[in-house]
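Per reviewer request, we include the raw input and output of the structure prediction for the construct analysed in the revised manuscript.
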Amino acid sequence: MEKTIVVSKDYTDKPGGRYIVEGPFSGEDFRIKMLLPKFEEAVKDDSKLVIVLDGGYGYAPSFLEEAFGGLIRETKNKRAKEIITIISDEEPKLIEDIDRYLSDAIGKL
């Protein structure tokens, strides 16, 4: 069964910076509270994890890199790109950016 996170509804519509110490709703906080648990469920259930980025007020590259690159660094899961699907009709370039962050982190494992 597919798992879904709609960031603007399930987490925040105003994402912050990279680290928790930099303020609320950071990429690190999102990874710890939302992304990692749902990712681990998807791995366990052999299902997909869909992340919907639409509806927010913009994503800093540092937020996205820490969330998604950090997920790879934390889990060491080289299959993450097969498990995660990113949806962003409002800012399609974010999909490419996240794919690059995932690929870069996987390449360093």
